[in-house]
Q: What sequence folds into this?
């Protein structure tokens, strides 16, 4: 049995240990935000910590600068000890890519992102059979010259950069090629809603087009491009309450998320009466055909802009912000307002009624 004095000593020792773990969240005056560097108020010194593969590096210093320099030196020393396989034993780029994808990506991403990475993988074909140890800065720069500046190239760089970091940290390449490759920052271009005049022109052009019901469904549901389940959309309808159950592709956990979209009676009938037409189409076919129509009309945009038009039209119809954001699958109404809702001084509730004949649900 432990006597009372020993028990007190044990409690005091436990309390002292817990104090050491606490880190002051307020930086000392003059400090800047430095990743992996924290100030410990308990012993009034800085701690720097970084994990390289399975090794945890820890350093201490009196100042932020000293601690940062010590940590960088220890990281460099740890990286220099990582052995690189001989060329004759080097794995192929594509084999390492597949391992990286299966272990580090696939379990944690949505089906939409899985498809996107598959498309990127196909574009990396010229690198597939190269030994991974030969994929260096110069070779990557030469490969990237084949692509025009734009979002497609940005995506390639994004995933290739993450992959090469993985290969470097796993000791398969001598250096991370992207450590010295300057990547242009992504420019966020906000897609606009179609204006009232553009909506009039689009609907007029669609009068005798087979694709018209598909475009109208995008307009009245706010579905993302790949959330339209062409083959099974009829099975997603609640016939009694006029509801549409759709996959929310922005779910970030392992469970597939769904969102429920409230339809008007006319919107419900639009879907119900065109099930066979939807089955004959694919998302890609609809996307291409609508792009052709927009090009004929001289209107910039795509099916993606219909989602922004949905948000803007609902705003002018007077539907509550929370209702609109939930229909779109957003976590907050602020996302909807900041990124999807436009001001159109030629648009009004009456004009939307006239254009769409009660296809929109009014809350």
A:
């Amino acid at each position: 049995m432990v006597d009372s004095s020993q028990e007190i000593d044990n409690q005091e020792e436990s309390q002292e240990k817990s104090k050491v773990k606490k880190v002051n969240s307020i930086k000392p005056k003059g400090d800047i935000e430095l990743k992996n560097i924290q100030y410990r108020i308990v012993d009034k010194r800085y701690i720097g910590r970084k994990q390289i593969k399975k090794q945890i590096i820890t350093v201490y210093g009196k100042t932020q600068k000293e601690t940062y320099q010590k940590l960088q030196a220890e990281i460099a020393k740890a990286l220099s000890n990582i052995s690189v396989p001989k060329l004759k034993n080097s794995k192929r780029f594509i084999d390492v890519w597949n391992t990286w994808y299966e272990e580090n990506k696939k379990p944690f991403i949505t089906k939409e992102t899985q498809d996107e990475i598959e498309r990127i993988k196909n574009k990396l074909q010229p690198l597939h059979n190269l030994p991974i140890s030969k994929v260096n800065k110069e070779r990557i720069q030469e490969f990237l010259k084949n692509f025009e500046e734009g979002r497609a190239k940005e995506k390639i760089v994004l995933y290739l950069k993450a992959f090469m970091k993985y290969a470097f940290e796993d000791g398969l390449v001598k250096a991370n090629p992207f450590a010295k490759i300057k990547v242009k920052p992504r420019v966020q271009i906000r897609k606009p809603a179609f204006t009232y005049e553009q909506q009039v022109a689009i609907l007029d052009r669609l009068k005798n087009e087979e694709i018209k019901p598909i475009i109208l469904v995008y307009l009245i549901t706010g579905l993302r491009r790949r959330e339209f389940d062409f083959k099974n959309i009829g099975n997603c309808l609640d016939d009694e309450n006029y509801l549409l159950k759709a996959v929310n592709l922005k779910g970030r956990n392992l469970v597939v998320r769904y969102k429920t979209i409230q339809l008007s009676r006319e919107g419900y009938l639009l879907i119900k009466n065109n099930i066979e037409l939807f089955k004959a189409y694919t998302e890609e076919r609809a996307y291409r055909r609508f792009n052709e129509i927009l090009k004929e009309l001289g209107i910039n945009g795509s099916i993606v802009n219909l989602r922004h038009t949905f948000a803007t039209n609902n705003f002018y119809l007077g539907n509550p912000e929370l209702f609109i954001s939930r229909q779109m699958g957003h976590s907050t109404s602020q996302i909807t307002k900041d990124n999807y809702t436009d001001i159109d001084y030629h648009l009004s509730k009456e004009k939307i009624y006239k254009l769409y004949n009660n296809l929109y649900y009014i809350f």
Q: What stands out?
A: Residues 1-9, 15-25, 84-89 have pLDDT under 50 and may be disordered.
